[in-house]
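Let's practice the habit of predicting before peeking. Look at the sequence and jot down your guess about where helices and strands might fall. Then scroll down.
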Amino acid sequence: MSITFAQLGVPSFVCDALAERGIHEPFEIQAATIADGLAGRDVCGRAPTGSGKTLAFGVPLVATTAALGNSAPRRPVALVLAPTRELAEQITTELRTSSGSVRIAAVYGGVGYGAQLNALKRGVDILVACPGRLEDLIERRDVDLREVRQVVLDEADRMADMGFMPAVKRLLDQTPSDRQTVLF
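Done guessing? Here is the structure:
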């Protein structure tokens, strides 16, 4: 017998958004990690590309962020770090499909600051970021990580291989020590 997202404790607004996309049952990595993510536990997951990892961390992230209400301008309450702008955009797009009123934006280099700064000024609940651009925005005082309650490192192994770990450590040091940490 298969398990449903609702049985894992996923809120109905997320279950409904997933069902609209034809997603009714969690993949293996999702079934293994969503309940722990929802409970605020630190999670480390590993699965191949195409196995549903983004929803494995995204469903709990959206659900718990929604429960907090909107964040203040420039002060996200959740942070997803990704090694490339393509992955940051992919994560942002995927999270927005089930986000309800949760505000999600991506920041990464190689593009102008305008749209990213406007989103931060309006307020972003979940910030998806590449480490270099995020450090730049922090230095400019356009974003502050002191309110972050959840951090996700997506493709953490790839970030390490690409030499991002010193930047990731500097970023994590700016978040509360009692945050939830999720590695995929």
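How did you do? Strands lie at 43-44, 78-81, 104-107, 126-129, 150-153, 180-183.
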